[in-house]
């Protein structure tokens, strides 16, 4: 599948649409999922244009998992979750809806999250959690 430069995460990377950011560096952006499946649900994306894991360069994949490790640790501390689920979908047949590779960081269990309604979260609530995650990152 060829990369669509107008997918929603590409637009977020170009700052054409807003996000609630928790982390950014030269290669990576992390922000709150707008329809969280649990409090603290965070997405981590590389800046490299890639639809899925298989399109990502090996160097970018190695960098991305290190950033996921860093940010997931901060999400765990900020939400005081006992456990953290990571997931990453490749292809529509796997359930991927946004065609720019992303890791989900989900406090708690994905089985519990499946019962959570998929609705846009209150922006102020997301901002509050994002502030806590940024503080936890600053402490790491
Ligand atoms: P996936 O099904 O793995 O492709 O997940 C895409 C995720 O992106 C879903 O959890 C959506 O809630 C989330 N999402 C879609 N649009 C936005 C957006 N503008 N800002 C933040 N998260 C989004």
Global mean pLDDT: 95
- Low-confidence segments, given as residue ranges, are none
CATH architecture: 2-Layer Sandwich
Compute the gyration radius: what is it? 14 Å
How many domain units? 1
Q: Structural class of the secondary structure composition? A: alpha+beta
Shape: globular
Q: Tell me the name of the CATH class.
A: Alpha Beta
Oligomer: single chain
What small ligands are held by the chains? adenosine monophosphate
User: Residue share in helices?
Assistant: 25-40%
Individual helix count: 4
Terminal CA distance: 37 Å
Largest sheet: 5 strands, antiparallel
Task: Find the CATH topology.
Answer: HIT family, subunit A
Number of strands: 5
SSE string, helices as H and strands as E: HEEEHEEHH
| CATH homologous superfamily title | HIT-like
Across the major sheet, the strand order is 1-2-3-5-4
What is the percentage of strand-forming residues? 15-25%
Mind explaining what this structure looks like?
- The chain is of the alpha+beta class.
- The protein has a single domain (8-138), classed as HIT family, subunit A (2-Layer Sandwich).
- It has helices at residues 8-13, 58-79, 110-113, 123-138, and strands spanning 21-24, 28-32, 42-46, 84-87, 103-107.
- It has a 5-stranded antiparallel beta sheet with strand order 1-2-3-5-4.
- α2 crosses α4 (123-138).
- The chain is globular, with a radius of gyration of 14 Å.
- The chain starts with 7 loop residues before the first helix and ends with a helix.
- Adenosine monophosphate (AMP) is lined by residues 8, 19, 33-35, 43, 89, 95-98.
């Amino acid at each position: 599948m060829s990369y669509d430069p107008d997918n929603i995460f590409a637009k977020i990377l170009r700052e054409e649409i807003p996000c609630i950011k928790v982390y950014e560096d030269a290669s990576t952006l992390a922000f709150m999922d707008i329809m969280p499946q649990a409090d603290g649900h965070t997405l981590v994306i590389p800046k490299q244009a890639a639809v899925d894991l298989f399109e990502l360069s090996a160097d970018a994949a190695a960098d991305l998992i290190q950033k996921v490790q860093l940010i997931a640790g901060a999400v765990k501390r900020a939400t005081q979750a006992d456990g953290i689920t990571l997931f990453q979908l490749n292809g529509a047949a796997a359930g991927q809806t946004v065609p720019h590779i992303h890791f989900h960081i989900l406090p708690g269990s994905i089985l519990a999250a499946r019962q959570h309604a998929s609705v846009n979260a209150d922006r102020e609530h997301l901002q509050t959690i994002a502030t806590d995650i940024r503080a936890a990152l600053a402490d790491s």
